[in-house]
Design a protein that fits this description.
The chain is mainly alpha-helical. The protein contains 9 helices and no strands.
Length: about 200
């Protein structure tokens, strides 16, 4: 791809990811995105076809980045419990390194009424559910090998994911309950310790 074209696309995605993480798609205008990116509005249509196409590109990038972090956790050299503990650490790292992507995936804005954007929102939910399926698989393997006690894998994975989201969201508070990245790391580690003891059969 032409480097200039790539720079334009990257600037648009960077501008859009910030806005889409904070506001519903239908409330963000192409003029705002173009102005924030420092490029002409026509570049959105030339490179992505529409605002909804740009939204789809942002979501796809967020999902790919999240998957890369999770791939570092679910390695074959780890047993199921070690994979789950590593997943909590990598999820925090993803949130700290890419807060806008994290916010978009963990706490998406309300669904857009536009069909194209609604389809992307549905894809986002499907892919996030797919990532959580890796936790389900780890729990099932732990139950099978006797390292994890008999629990419902699906609900347990949902509880873990929701707990991590809740801890990480403390970084956004604007009061005395706000947690720094270092404090979040401690909380995630302690939560992982509780999870480890709660999951183990012995």
């Amino acid at each position: 791809m032409d480097p200039r074209k790539q720079r334009t696309m990257d600037a648009l995605v960077a501008a859009a990811q910030q806005m889409f993480a904070e506001r519903p798609v239908e409330e963000v205008t192409v003029e705002e995105i173009g102005q924030h990116a420092g490029v002409a509005v026509g570049s959105i249509y030339n490179n992505f076809g529409s605002k909804e196409g740009l939204y789809a590109a942002v979501v796809a990038r967020a999902l790919d980045v999240d998957r890369d972090y999770m791939d570092r956790a679910y390695t074959p050299d780890r047993d199921p419990i070690e994979q789950l503990l590593a997943a909590s650490e990598q999820y925090l790292r993803f949130a700290l390194d890419h807060p806008q992507f994290f916010r978009m995936l963990a706490f998406p804005t309300k669904p857009s009424p536009y069909p194209a954007a609604a389809a992307t929102t549905a894809l986002l939910a499907l892919r996030v559910d797919g990532q959580n399926a890796r936790m389900v698989d780890a729990i099932e393997r732990g139950i099978a090998d006797g390292s994890i006690r008999h629990l419902d894998p699906q609900s347990t994975a949902t509880i873990l994911w929701a707990s991590w989201n809740g801890i990480i969201s403390l970084a956004w508070r604007h009061d005395d309950l706000q947690q720094s990245p270092e404090e979040l790391a401690v909380l995630i580690e302690r939560a992982a310790d509780l999870v480890s003891y709660g999951l183990r059969l012995k």
